[in-house]
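Model it.
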Amino acid sequence: MKGVILAGGTAMRLRPLTLVTNKHLLPIYNKPMIFYPIETLKDAGIKDILVITGKEHAGAVFSLLGSGKEMGVNFTFKVQDEPSGIPSAIGIAEDFVGGDKFVAINGDNILTHPITRFVKEFEQGSEDARILLYKGTPEQAMKSGVAVLNGDRVVQLIEKPKSPPSTMISIGVNMYSPEAFGAIKQLKPSPRGETEITELNGYFLRKGTLKASVIDGHWLDAGTIEELMEANIKLKELKNSGK
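Modeled.
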């Protein structure tokens, strides 16, 4: 298994902070945000990690992470010239992934519990794709992609529903076989000019090979100034409580 961290984008909602640095380098309690998905992959046994970032602050990302030796992993870096969607960013990883299964994780994903068992199940299983979910609130679901489940099978995917039929939020930890790259090449940009992760996962849903797992513990988002502040406070509380 290989890992792909998606650390690009313009993070408009976090300006002016992101005028001076990459969003994923902003601090969450006692470490840069991107350290959390790195540790999530490492704890799951994934040591070969591709970091995909935008060109604006690529140098800062490279300088912080280096080769990965100090963190016990091996980093490869690639630059996405324009923010054209998460599937398009994942598509950049095709040569790196080769014939392996892989985990694509958003660089702002802050998880408090390991995903090791889900990674191992996917690695040893026969499904082509698996998404990780978090049971959130209706308010969170309205701002996210949500999944409707039948057991561990996904029966429906909905992007930012006004009346959520489910509060199972797709958190941006997606596992794929190399078939994903062929599917990405078939995607058309949405009206906002980007390829959409819901469309990529929809390909596997229609094929009947998409599964889902609900994570343990907490998932924290940091997409706005308020959420960034809340994530810092929550992580401090969790660390101080020993959880």
